[in-house]
């Protein structure tokens, strides 16, 4: 892989976050009411669900991470803008970097969103994890757009 240092750094960042959240979820499990708020409108809960819903986002996070990881392994299978023989290696490397960022940041986004839901369910402050989830989601959306504009400006 051409982006080993980036991938290693993201593993170092995301693994403790996932482990902390799993520990926190099991540690607080007995304090979580059986019915929790799962949707809010204007800061007020308007939809309720079982506390077992808190297991869905970590599972979705891991599945998403795995599926995007499959795409990362073969960057030459992706669609490219202005791909030529002269720039294909740099395009593949940049696309791989973008996909690795989306893979790890997307997974951590789900974890932070779930941490916010968990904290809200037990009456703790949930603003920071929710804000982190929003920031990471923005990174996941901005990164491919930036890459698309970068690729469009390539000459050869």
Entry summary:
The chain is mostly helical and 156 residues long.
How would you describe what is shown here?
Keywords: Membrane, Transmembrane, Transmembrane helix. The chain crosses the membrane at residues 7-29, 49-72, 98-118, 130-152. Residues 25-61 form the DUF1648 domain. Pfam families: DUF1648 (PF07853). InterPro entries: DUF1648 (IPR012867). By secondary structure, the protein is mostly helical. The protein has one domain (4-152). 65% of the residues lie in helices and 9% in strands. It is built from four helices and two strands. The chain has helices spanning 4-28, 56-72, 88-121, 127-152; strands at 35-41, 44-50. The protein has a two-stranded antiparallel sheet. β1 (35-41) and β2 form a beta hairpin. α1 packs parallel to α3, α2 runs antiparallel to α3 (88-121) and α3 packs antiparallel against α4 (127-152). The chain is elongated, with a radius of gyration of 19 Å. 21% of the residues are buried. The mean pLDDT is 90.
